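Side project, low priority. Logging it here so it doesn't get lost.
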Amino acid sequence: MQTTIGLYNYQIITNEQVDLKKKAAACLALSFIGVDVSGKWVQEPMVGRLNINYEDFYQFTLDYLDSTIEQGFCAIATDDQNQVVGVLAGDTNKLEIIGEDIFEGDFADMNVILRVLEDVDERFIEDYRNRNGKDIEDGELLHLFMLGVIAEHERHSIIQQLGDMLIQKAILQGLKAVLGEATNLKSMRVMEKYHQMEKYKDLNGQYIVHSYQDNNKLKEIPADIADGTYMIIRELS
């Protein structure tokens, strides 16, 4: 089903919509690798510090969508030319820790990002187990994994509409919470403002965060852009 709000059309896509899936992967890859939008540079801070090229990241993103899109949590915004200008993609798989480098060659720096995400994920998994006396199960939580917006206008409205679509679906399916890894201050602020997500505190009252200052590969990221990757959450039930 497609909904029109303001300048853009919104929908949750499926694997059968191959062209839109590829455009969604391209939108995400561009917003992470770096793109000029109306004179403003849009880029994910970790990717900006590492040696990661567009082609490899596009394939990584497309592989993720291929493996998760049928769960029904990939929402897109398209313009009047049917170009994808915003994507929020997630899944309901339990968080898993690989624990070793899996990317090679030109894409080896992606292992740095993997380790950052696994650091906060592993601490969240342990805290969840301590709180609930059980491990996270598939289909229990909505994990918002990738957000990318390359539209020139109504960028915050796009983020709000995409998130609303996925969170409402998660509520209808009875999921317990929505969580994600906020890798920069800007994404954290918009998720706090538009979707009531908050920095997660463990049982000791401490934020679960991977500090970039303590990471040799990422310590040059300016603190006013991002000081670390935080686990963020919104309880649904």
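Brief comment: The mean pLDDT is 96.
Revisit when time allows.
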